[in-house]
């Protein structure tokens, strides 16, 4: 029987690839998505579609309104930065940073993993082509793994948790190539921080810019743009 694992799934390019990787590594992947008041809430619907397409073992959606305690441009607390060049992205911490977001998400994943009897948690954190978030760094993930094994009944009893970040040292182009090889349909994903009502990407935010860079460097056309007639 396949070992259970919890995979944080936003509905974006990176997390979709991580779900496919967890499946390819033989895990029974239980996807966890968080509806936290994000302006790009369409990602929850995309996560559900990816769960069905990639054959996850289960899918849970947690609701927590971070707009109350952790305002950000992603939750309507200001404008989403747009039109930034490659030299600007990754320099400093942008307005789209949501205070403690990955810590909150990983805590939910840890709780579900302990409930499921899972010892493995997957997250799509990346430390190369990313927007400068401090909670995407390898030392942060190592620290959370230590916390997980100190703060839980399972950890105290010697059943240790592992935090997997298979994309941590990959470029966006490498991520795209890996996902394509694993059969991920990227037309089903969303990356935009400020999409239109139907999910049409703005094409100008940091996340759109990083996605475009990844597909261009991979030499692959982004099927999401083709879906909206922008290939």
How are the SSEs placed, and which strands pair?
Elements: E1 4-8, H1 13-24, E2 28-35, H2 42-54, E3 58-63, H3 101-116, E4 120-122, H4 138-150, H5 153-156, E5 162-164, H6 172-181, H7 206-218, H8 223-227
Parallel strand pairs: 1-2, 1-4, 2-3, 4-5
Class per helix and strand makeup: alpha/beta
Q: Name the CATH homologous superfamily.
A: HUPs
- Estimate the mean pLDDT confidence: 94
**What sequence of helices (H) and strands (E) makes up the elements?**
EHEHEHEHHEHHH
The tally of structural domains comes to: 1
How does CATH name the architecture? Answer: 3-Layer(aba) Sandwich
Percent of residues in helices comes to: 25-40%
CATH topology heading: Rossmann fold
Rg for CA atoms: 17 Å
Strand content: 5-15%
Give me the side-by-side strand order of the main sheet: 3-2-1-4-5
The rounded distance between the terminal residues' Cα atoms is 42 Å
Name the shape in a single word.
Answer: globular
User: Which residue ranges are poorly predicted, with pLDDT under 50 across at least 5 consecutive positions?
Assistant: none
The CATH C-level name is Alpha Beta
Sheet with the most strands?
A: 5 strands, parallel
Number of strands: 5
Total helices: the number is: 8
